[in-house]
Amino acid sequence: MISKGCRSLRRKEYRLAIDQLRQRHPWLAQQIVEPPPGHLRVLAHFLAQCELLMGETGHQNPLMLCVTTVRDKMLLRCELTNASMQRERAIQDITEQARDAAQLSCPVCGAPSMVSDVHAAQGQRCMEHAGVGGLFAEDVRRHRQMARQRGAQRTSLTVGHRGDEVMVLLPKTESGEDEQQAAVSLLLSSASPSDAAEPCPTEPTVTLLELAGLKRFVDRHRPKGDDKLRRAQAMVERINTAGSERRKLGVLPCDWPAVLDEFIQAFPNFFELADLLRDHFALSALGDQRVAWPPVLLVGSAGIGKTEAARWLAEKLSLPFRVLDMASAQSGSPLAGSESFWSNSEPGMLFELLAYQPKANPIMLLDELDKVDQQKPYDPMAPLYTLLESRSARSFMDLSIRDFTIDASHVNWIATANCADNIPAPLLSRMAVLHVQAPTPDQVARIAQAIYVRMRAEACWGETFASKLDDAVLDQLRGLPPRQLSQALRRALGRAARDERDHITIQDLPPAMGPAVRGIGFIAT
Q1: For residue 171, which phi and psi values (nearest 5 degrees)?
Q2: Element (H, E) at 125
Q3: 384 Ramachandran zone, left/alpha/beta (phi>0; psi -120 to 50)
Q4: What are the residue ranges spanned by the domains of the chain?
């Protein structure tokens, strides 16, 4: 029978459903099957269709299947080895149908979602679970308890109860046995008040600056002429547009453990950073869930992905992100502004990042901190002695604007260096120093596969190509530095497209990408 009600599952119930799927389809034993709980019904229907297509030869040529969950969306990839072109196209068709069906159903309970666009960027939830954090009933309960502790006002959401049984239908197979109509079932107790959906915690706010200081700033520029006054008024207008004296703090995504798991998959040699973030995120989850970690210094050889890892985190955590090249800094002005008595005085990057953005906890990357020339008359690292201490950073003053201070204590700092020997000890004591090793060849292969999967997912032409790279291609890529993988793969995809192939071969990969310079025109050799 089909379920008459939709509700969130507990983790234990979810694991039971996965076990039942594996028992019904033994060929899943070596496959990755981790869909959102609300998409179990879609997956069960898909698996039954796959068995119909595989037929009697399915056990000799099983599907290569991977079902995962990324930010509420079911990622479904499958491949039938040694299959005819017609059967392969049929597999692609039912895969697309399953993706569309999942996109239109709530990842929490499976009810129809609030959108009708199957091409939406992320999975959409139903009306009941639109404000719920997490995918399981335990997460719903935890968010409600945290909201009660903070004294937050709760939004009353009505949970529909039209039955206490969740069943998943499987169509008949060619054998026609009645057993193939059996469902993957979960008998659930009637919902209790503790299972009521709870809204995600709102973003906390902090005071960034004083409004009186903004008025003093404008008044000080009135006697200096129209140009100076208009410039000051334009700056104040941008500050007011971003939130005036208040700013929000970006909060953890509801599935932050899964985000960090995805980070490890994409950057396997950054396990120490992921471990540190996991500790601090767990603490934040007990409070107001703000994204926060202490200043971090990533030490490792060039080209191992330090900057790319920081950029990845900023994107997944939805935080503003800036990179300051410390190797080219001549003074502290790029970070903390230049003195106001100079005619071309400008605020620094940190002021612009905080004052003109709506969130007060951005990610600031100090690239190549060990390359700073400390013999310069104006030390580029001088502002960091104040900014990396939370207490002193609360009253940060940009040198070009001395009328007020801003609260820079919520900035998430990441610095990179090839070696920590050239960094002053007082600065090192203010940061958590993590040594990042160059990825092993096996890790490079995993990184290459992750980059390839991301390229396919993000590009409009992604579905044209095979779901994963061949082992021979991965072996060829093992020797490349991580920063060259994306360029090499994109070139290879282009060559495969030129030859109208749906997969990359070794011949598509560009030659070794080194520093050698090739001649141009008549000077070429």
Answers
A1: -65, 165
A2: none
A3: alpha
A4: 11-195, 207-435, 441-508
Fill in the DSSP letter of residue 321. E
Nearest to 347 by CA among 242, 217, 207: 217
What are the tens digits of pLDDT across the range 405-427?
Answer: 999 999 999 999 999 998 999 99
CATH number, domain 207-435: 3.40.50.300
Which residues, at least 6 apart from 380, have a Cβ–Cβ distance to it below 8 Å? Answer: 326, 329, 330, 331, 332, 334, 335, 372, 373
For residue 134 the two structure tokens come to 């997490």
The C-alpha atoms of residue 33 and residue 383 are separated, in whole angstroms, by 50
Say what percent of the chain tops pLDDT 70: 79
Give residues with Cβ within 8 angstroms of 142, minimum separation 6.
133, 134
* CA–CA dist 198, 186 (Å, integer): 23
Report the 10 Å Cβ neighbour count for 277: 21
Highest mean pLDDT among 31-35, 190-194, 212-216, 408-412: 408-412
pLDDT of the residue at 438: 86
What is the Cα–Cα distance from 397 to 335, expressed in whole angstroms?
11
Would you give the distance in Å from CA 357 to the centre of its chain? 20
Give the number of C-alpha atoms closer than 13 A to the C-alpha of residue 432, restricted to the C-beta side.
16
Q: Cα separation of 412 and 313, whole Å? A: 11
Q: Among candidates 390, 396, 391, 315, which has minimal Cα distance to 350?
A: 396
Whether 379 and 259 have beta carbons less than 8 Å apart is answered as: no
Q: Is the dihedral of CA 109, 114, 120, 125 positive or negative?
A: negative
Give the number of other Cβ atoms within 10 Å of residue 165's Cβ. Answer: 14
* Cα distance between the two ends of the chain: 74
Secondary structure letter of residue 308 according to DSSP: H
Residue 497 pLDDT class (50, 70, 90 cuts): very high
* Residues 101, 102, 105, 109, CA torsion sign: positive
Using a cut of 0.70, tell me whether the model's pTM lies above it: no
Tens digit of each residue's pLDDT (9 = 90 or more) over 349-392:
999 999 999 999 999 999 999 998 777 677 889 999 999 999 99
- Reference 447, options 469, 463, 427; nearest CA is 469
Residue 26: burial class (beta carbons within 10 Å; 0-12, 13-18, 19+): exposed
The pLDDT value given to residue 213: 87
Give the span between the Cα atoms of 416 and 438, in whole angstroms: 14
